[in-house]
Amino acid sequence: MYNKHYYFIGIGGIGMSGLALIALEKGAMVSGSDTVHSCITSGLQKKGAKIFIGHKKEQIPLDAAVVYSSAISSDNSELMFAKSHKLSILHRSDLLALIMQPQEALLVTGTHGKTTSSSLLAHILLEKEMQPSFAIGGFIRGLNANAGYGKGRYFIAEADESDGSFLKYTPFGAIITNIDRDHLDYWQTMNGLVRGFQKFIDSIISWEHFFWHGDNPWLSEIVTKGYSYGFDKKNALFIESHRQDKWRNIFTICFENKRYKEIEIPIIGRHNILNASAVFGLCLKLGMMEEKIRSAFMSFKGINRRLECKGEAKGVIFYDDYAHHPTEVLTTLRAIKNAVGSARIVLAFQPHRYSRTLACLNEFGAAFEAADIVVITDIYTAGEAPIKEIDEGLLLREINKEIKRPAYYFSRSKLSCQLVKILQTGDCLITMGAGDISSLSYDIMENL
């Protein structure tokens, strides 16, 4: 650490709070602001952080380095104060780059699957007492933590491609889960996004510890080193067979002339077989024994907001998931359908950002095929200004063109009471999106 005091603007965010926690554990003073109190800010307070509610320039110590994220607008009063007083200012990614030193970084990047893959990797190294540091974009169940400082050799982190900040790091090893059509508000074109990944790949130190999704067409065009993984047998590590048994995956992989049969992990979906396979391969190359990896897989409890069971009421079971891109929605719903069988799936989907909804509009319709009833609500803006070409009505029409069952729109304020009317005993309700929809389950359970 290079500063004795860090002030975080938006300290309650999932990425910012993780860095604040590591700074505390490394002996720095930490303070920061957010708009509301939360369980995250309360947890940081218990660790010794000083938390302010509301953004006010008077709260910033003049000896502190001020940390902000891409979510903080340039006209934020605290950020403007820090600039006018020439304080040390760090983007979240700059601080992560500093904090990772002198450990060797094992980074996970890709349009989908970063949090699951990095959480699983951190869980395994922690389970096997390798004392890694880690900074993850979600709370690992069982640990109830999204970050931690360890004195081992490795630092595990998500490398965020959405704002280009993954190019600030020097990864010792890495997993690239995929490249998909997303974050074009920043990269402008798919060519720009792919070039960004190429630069990230060029920065990797150890090709022996680099795994990339070989079935992904964009990655297969640009990567020539490391180990490809996927379902196609042309990959260096390929998934020979797989099946889903209710809420667990069982699969066999082939890697370096050896078959690893019937690997089990208690998370579901074809996408998570890919995530787990990459982590399994990387752990082998880190020198871990096969049986230790297998046993750590079995004790993995998942991550909050990744098919998180929220509870049950009146015979309805509630799950919550962070999926917001059509690819994520499609694969997650298919996995749920395989798990629940004949139970009716009621989906409450909150679109995320006007720009993403517009860019992926033609892909959304087919993404909901596995749901029996689809309900969409207001677009979660994430601070974006409205785009006149897109609204909930246009998205609803696109969905109704593609799926045989009707889809509905209800405003966020009326969503809970309308879903109560729809739900029946035996249903499975899925709340899905990257906004505030995760709180909806509790409202409906209370109403039921």
TrEMBL record:
NCBIfam families: murC (TIGR01082). Pfam families: Mur_ligase, Mur_ligase_C, Mur_ligase_M. ATP binds at residues 110-116. This is UDP-N-acetylmuramate--L-alanine ligase. It is found in: Cytoplasm. InterPro entries: Mur-like_cat_sf (IPR036565), Mur_ligase_C (IPR004101), Mur_ligase_C_dom_sf (IPR036615), Mur_ligase_cen (IPR013221), Mur_ligase_N (IPR000713), MurCDEF_pg_biosynth (IPR050061), UDP-N-AcMur_Ala_ligase_MurC (IPR005758). Belongs to the MurCDEF family. Its EC number is 6.3.2.8. It is an enzyme of class 6 (ligase). Pathway: Cell wall biogenesis; peptidoglycan biosynthesis. It comes from Candidatus Rhabdochlamydia oedothoracis. Residues 305-435 form the Mur ligase C-terminal domain. The chain crosses the membrane at residues 6-24. Keywords: ATP-binding, Cell cycle, Cell division, Cell shape, Cell wall biogenesis/degradation, Cytoplasm, Ligase, Membrane, Nucleotide-binding, Peptidoglycan synthesis, Transmembrane, Transmembrane helix. Cell wall formation. Residues 5-101 form the Mur ligase N-terminal catalytic domain. Residues 108-282 form the Mur ligase central domain. GO terms for molecular function: UDP-N-acetylmuramate-L-alanine ligase activity. It comes from the Bacteria. SUPFAM superfamilies: MurCD N-terminal domain (SSF51984), MurD-like peptide ligases, catalytic domain (SSF53623), MurD-like peptide ligases, peptide-binding domain (SSF53244). It catalyses: UDP-N-acetyl-alpha-D-muramate + L-alanine + ATP = UDP-N-acetyl-alpha-D-muramoyl-L-alanine + ADP + phosphate + H(+).
